Amino acid sequence: MSMLFAETLRKLRTERGLSQRELAERMYVTRPTVARWENGSRLPDAVMIARLSRCLDVDLNTLLNAAAESDDLPNVILVDDRKLILTGGLPVLEEVLPNAAVTGFTRPSEAVDFAKTNRVALAFLDIELGNTSGLDLCRTLLEINPRTNVVFLTAYSGYSLDAWSTGASGFMLKPITAEGVRAQLKNLRYPFSTGGAGE
């Protein structure tokens, strides 16, 4: 949760006598967007933070510093069309990544929608996702955020060469194990604080 930023924004807005709706109108966003910023469920990007600093007449660094300190809960997603894999894999990811927000998806479209509104630090993707290829999903996620780390999951080692051509960070054979996840974390293209032992 981005609580420091949320509290800072709420305080600045109320000090200036603005409602969420009035700030939203000045920002050219919807009121629910401002509400999400203020309840800590969303953190605006750098462009929006710069716009906020102008709308609220506050030093940009005040908001940037609050955002940087708030950005402490990385989003990790697991996408597999088999619920059994999610049921078994999500607890493993939560064990290895205790300070991450771990979310599972059986549908690639839901993962894409999530990635559009939440910055995904790490995505574990099945390669065969029904009618969708995990390779294509990887490319879509990287278009949304080029700094997303992607680790492919499959039961078939023959996919590894195709997987490397997508810009992924790693490749794991199923089932998901704590040891396997920890090994992948060492090879991330864009490392982040995992909250695990030794950090």
Kindly describe this structure.
By secondary structure, this protein is an alpha/beta fold. The chain folds into two domains: about 5-70, 434 Repressor (Amino-terminal Domain), CATH 1.10.260; about 75-185, 3-Layer(aba) Sandwich (Rossmann fold). Helices cover about 50% and strands about 15% of the residues. The strands form two sheets. It has a five-stranded parallel β-sheet, with helices on both faces. Helix 6 links the parallel strand 1 (about 75-80) and strand 2 (about 100-105). The protein is elongated and about 60 Å long. The two termini are about 20 Å apart. About 30% of the residues are buried.
Taken from the alpha-carbon principal axes, the silhouette is: elongated
Could you tell me the radius of gyration in angstroms? 19 Å
Strand segment tally: 7
Helix content: 40-55%
The average pLDDT score comes to: 86
Characterize the main sheet.
5 strands, parallel
Overall structural class, as computed from helix and strand content, comes to alpha/beta
Give the SSE string. Answer: HHHHHEHEHEEEHEHEH
CATH topology of the largest domain: Rossmann fold
Low-confidence stretches: none
Portion in beta strands: 15-25%
Number of domains: 2
CATH top level label of the largest domain? Alpha Beta
Just name the CATH architecture of the largest domain: 3-Layer(aba) Sandwich
